[in-house]
């Protein structure tokens, strides 16, 4: 995956989520969330219930599933095929990868929230190449 090359914006106390999709749409999506942002999301989802660390992380994974799942579903619908993604991996701090898979394309999206910058980095392979492989029975 290409390294983030845009103007890097600092995220206070980041939580990283890594999601990999397989099938026709092959991608790795890395989200960097301000912890305050996720705390508000989890608080809303759990209706203010006091949670332990494991439950808090389970809510974060569910939020990321919804957040990224809708995007993957829209891509699947546009391509007319199905791709799946793995359960998100959540980590405290900023995710750094030592071995990068090189994807055909990548994009970086900074989103400004009242809790700070939320950053999304996605590396993905050209869907038309994957569709051709699928048609040839190689996937």
Give the gist of this structure:
With 139 residues, the chain is of the alpha+beta class. 34% of the residues lie in helices and 31% in strands. It has helices at residues 35-45, 53-79, 127-135, and strands spanning 14-23, 27-34, 83-85, 89-92, 105-113, 116-124.
Describe the fold and architecture.
The protein has one domain: CheC-like (Chemotaxis protein chec), CATH 3.40.1550. Helices cover 34% and strands 31% of the residues. The chain has three helices and six strands. It has helices at residues 35-45, 53-79, 127-135; strands at residues 14-23, 27-34, 83-85, 89-92, 105-113, 116-124. Strands 1, 2, 3, 4, 5 and 6 form a six-stranded antiparallel sheet that branches. The longest helix is centred in the middle third of the chain and has 27 residues, at 53-79.
Question: Which features would summarize this protein structure in a list?
Answer:
single chain, 139 residues, alpha+beta, Chemotaxis protein chec, six-stranded antiparallel β-sheet, 3 helices, globular, disordered N terminus
User: What CATH architecture do you see?
Assistant: 3-Layer(aba) Sandwich
Radius of gyration, CA atoms, in whole angstroms = 16 Å
Structure classification:
alpha+beta
CATH top level assignment = Alpha Beta
> On the 0-100 scale, what is the average pLDDT?
82
Number of helices: 3
């Amino acid at each position: 995956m290409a390294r983030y090359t845009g103007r890097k914006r600092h995220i206070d106390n980041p939580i990283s989520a890594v999601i990999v999709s397989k099938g026709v749409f092959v991608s790795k999506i890395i989200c960097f969330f301000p912890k305050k942002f996720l705390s508000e999301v989890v608080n809303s989802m759990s209706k203010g219930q006091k949670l332990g660390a494991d439950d808090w992380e389970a809510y974060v994974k569910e939020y990321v599933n919804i957040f990224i799942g809708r995007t993957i579903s829209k891509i699947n619908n546009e391509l007319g095929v199905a791709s799946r993604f793995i359960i998100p991996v959540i980590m405290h701090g900023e995710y750094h990868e030592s071995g990068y898979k090189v994807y055909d394309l990548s994009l970086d999206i900074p989103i400004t929230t009242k809790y700070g910058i939320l950053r999304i980095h996605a590396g993905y392979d050209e869907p038309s190449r994957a569709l051709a492989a699928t048609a040839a029975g190689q996937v």
